## 1
Amino acid sequence: MAVETSDPGIALATDTPSAAGMSRQHLLIFAGLLALGLVAPFVLYPVFVMKVLCFALFACAFNLLLGYGGLLSFGHAAYFGSASYVCAHAAKAWNLTPELSILLGTGTACILGIVFGSLAIRRQGIYFAMVTLAFAQMVFFFSLQAPFTGGEDGIQSVPRGRLLGLIDLSADLTLYFFVLAVVFLGLLLIYRIIHSPFGQVLKAIRENEPRAVSLGYRVNRYKLAVFVMSATLAGLAGATKAIVFQLASLTDVYWTMSGEVVLMTLLGGMGTVFGPIVGAAIIVTMQNYLATFGAWVTVIQGCIFVVGVLLFREGIVGVLSKWFKKPL
Amino acid sequence: MFELLGIPPQALFGQLLLGLINGSFYALLSLGLAVIFGLLNIINFAHGAQYMMGAFVAWMLLNYLGVNYWWALLLVPIAVGLFGIVIERLLISRLYHLDHLYGLLLTFGLALIIQGLFRNQYGISGLPYQIPQQLAGGQNLGFMFLPNYRGWVIVASLVVCLATWFMIEKTKLGAYLRAATENPTLVGAFGINVPRLVTLTYGFGVALAAFAGVLAAPIYSVNPNMGADLIIVVFAVVVIGGMGSILGSIITGFGLGLIEGLTRVFYPEGSAVVIFVIMAIVLLVKPAGLFGRTA
């Protein structure tokens, strides 16, 4: 993806960080998003907004890998879904508190990320995409057959439990603010990673891998590190989702889920900070309103893919970013 | 009756046959992917959808127009191949100057559209396609029963695979193709119309997928999702074999089908994932793939 993201118009716009390590416009946008997040549950159905939040985190985690690492994984459902299953199982069968369940799920995604990542980075480009997809399908078959996943039914009616054993999360609004906090912290962490020296090296590798090698960077270590971070954060999103919907199902690990997160990132703008959030919001909203049309949703998603790839490769935020001549 | 490791021979050979059948499809599909990848440098994610289209068009020809299986075997690859050519000209050809991953995303989108449209029209329950009467029945081989149609699938797939190999490795057209894979600019300078070659290659790859679809129609029920899961396994097959060699794709396809069949005999729970596990091992030992060349 190096060709597209290295747009000189964006690269030239100075991204001067303020004292807090965040440029002013980014600080404003984050503040705006937080305000939006605080108001949203009083205007919209909280569970819907929580779904948007989980997928926004998922897409941002994916974008960390694709947009900044330049690695197209077609199997991110594996981390999202496995975390979702483990979290659901921990909360339901072991009666763990939600934060512990989420941590366990996230940890599972992290370990899976280490195993699959260290194998997948041995191939580049198209092969990398195929390898990650194949591993994700392996996780899917495992989830279909494993004794604790409930096969086609998935794990249903997962208890939301009490946060830290104290705060009852069964009310939608209480849970909402917990989810908002988790997702927001996740987004800030991703922002921090992107703008750290580590993130700069990632961009260097994305732009010109041989040069990064010649400068003495151990490229594969960086690739693996960003892969594991991305998988872990995707797992955080999946685990949180399991608590919100009280459900972990095969949909979470199927390849369509991997495709959806690619679509969200492409639509919003890969390699942009806020693009995946926009993409996730649009796709989730679309699925919500078009749910009654069945397979047409798939057709529409396919069309967005085709049009996006042919005409709209920068994505929504990418285009906005060009207009304002500011990296967003 | 003799037994092998406590497995009755009927079960063993039955599963091996099933493995060979699956292997036939892996070989045909990974061959198509390899041919397309060689020249276009894209992975055709729509390959599974085009395989499904092959089966559906055969079903439509039979049920709407009364065209029998044998004609379908000839006409369907041509029709679906032409569809591929249109797609290549209209859409894919606009992406050659970009990162190859965009080709993957585009064809993924196409796969979603095709599958979605067929699902709207025909649902997901699957439609039956009768085995042609010439191939009904089967042979008793003494150690196992071989349904004629299954034997035919293996033979047909082998013949088509080897014919493709012969065409690419031994004919003049194939020589152009291999040359264009190595250095399209230079081949163009010799007066060969490379873009047309690229288009025809894509059409041919798609036609192979459609041919596999027609072969599959009487064995599996014809349904819109039949290609989606298969293509992911084929991706793993392609990673294992490496796409550098035509003969390599064929051997890997059949070989992995057999291994999958054997796994189903000795450890049924593992049969769905055995190919992915082999892929992991190959990545560890020989990352470029068994027949691949390191880039």
## 2
Amino acid sequence: MVKSTITRAAHATPEPVAARVRGLSDRAIAWIFVAPTLFLLLAVNIFPLIWTIRLSFTNYRVNRPNRDIEWIGLRNYERILTDADVWQTMQATAHFLIWTIVLQVLIGFALAWLINSKFRSSNFWTTVIVLPMMLSPAVVGNFWTFLYQPQIGLFNHAVAFFTGVDPASFSMIGDVHLAPWAIVIADTWMWTPFVMLICLAGLRSIPASIYEAAECDRASKWRQFWTITVPMVLPFLMLAVLFRGIENFKMFDLVVQLTGGGPGNTTTLTSIDLKREAFERWRTGYASAYAVILFVTVFGLASIYVKALNKVKER
Amino acid sequence: MSYSVTDPSPLSRWIAGVTVVLYAMITLLPLLWIIATGFKSPEDSIAYPPKVIFEPSLEGYVNLFTTRTRISEEEQATPPPAETWYERIAREQGQSIAGPSRYGERFVNSVIIGFGSTFLCMVLGTAAAYAFSRFRVPLRDDLMFFILSTRMMPPIAVAIPIFLMFRQLGLNDTHLGMILLYTAVNLSLSVWLLKGFIDEIPVEYEEAALIDGYTRFQAFTKVVLPQAATGIASTAIFCLIFAWNEYAFAVLLTSGTAQTAPPFIPTIIGVGGKDWPAVAAGATIFLVPVMVFTILLRKHLLRGITFGAVRK
């Protein structure tokens, strides 16, 4: 019988190589498969993080590479935590976080509840509602400045249409009191569908039999809503809040394009402030300490929250 | 269909439908406005009050893709014949086309970096997800959580050392640098999503393949990968969309050769004030592909945005 090329090649292969191809142990494969991912994440996330922590104890400035780097201990941290501007930034971030979450939870849940009544073509409209959240926040944020223009903007004219005020009389992104709401509105427009989708999944996970049982026991609709719907959807809702919370704490692209942090410092969220310190004033050491504080805050708050979430899930 | 006491009444269903459709219309309005503005002339785009009905014009698109110079008065009196339709549109504004603008390049950069990072991310992510799904990797849960936690860091916070590192390695403002960076950013998403998809494939298929004499690696490529194809495809689209939309790293680490479209589009300006039709045209071309992908993805959307935490 003529040996096929493959068999001949197989016989020509040196024994150790053949053994390796044939018999890679599961453990070896596991490591070969996982290693590149871990390596890349270490190189692009953990290594920079350690570097940031190191820099945070120095007075290093990127734009002055020849100056001696001095170790100044915790002075950067001290300066940040006692800086009134930083606290104002934190307040702006808190305002943005709280209001976006409140509005998105209320509107998102209401929408999900309405969609769950399964009217005709509800799937189609769900897809339509979801569109904004998948788009580029920077590009959309930039266009919202156009919608917010006092005379020519669509938003001002829509408000004028419903309330009768002069569309040229107010500027959403130019006014110190309105600007914080301008970013809340744009973010709510963009991310309400996210909360809606998660709530919808929660509502659909409730078996109809529970409602049927409640109906047999003559529980009112109101009662059913508060004792069945809300508790069953709560874990889902809390998950949505976790995601939105982390994302909006990091918020940069949408707001920086929409208001650039202005007017004054009214919409300067922490990420925007950090970017200014690091890449405009080039205070690298100071900005590194700032970054560490933010990271510890997100991580701390998120882990406390996840504990609470797990408790709700267990109930 | 069987009747159930818990079904909402036709009237409440109708009210729900109308409310949702109304919300959808309002939410869609800014998007439609972007598309419409792209087809307005610059005068119509800043009309007071805003024009809903207008004469469509391709000026925005011409301005987006070209750089133009003003024609002097005498040249205007004896213009050389306009050869192309876009030259004619520019002439009507008293301008002459000088050359292509940067938008084309930036868009191509977005495509190269988006697809490059998605490809790399899928190769690494599928392998890691398979290993986490099927083998007893030591500290598996800790490693999975570590992978997820990389997503919690504000991009600006890691940008400082990445900026320094890239400068040292000569990766600042290069395609390769951005591809590696976006791959790392998206790995958490791809590993988590793909692990979910691979977990759903019964182990018995592979065991049968192994008994038939396949090696582990063959079982992975010939049995698991085809089974996970839908999951891999939808994960890939998610990675592509995130890389496509990314702004913070792009604006900090790129300026010329590797700049993507999101940092570029807001910088489009016209003569005397912002050229909104050109901005809108650029945004439309950039956003519409994502809208199409979103519609294709709608079944897996929830899973993707929650990193596989909610599967429906």
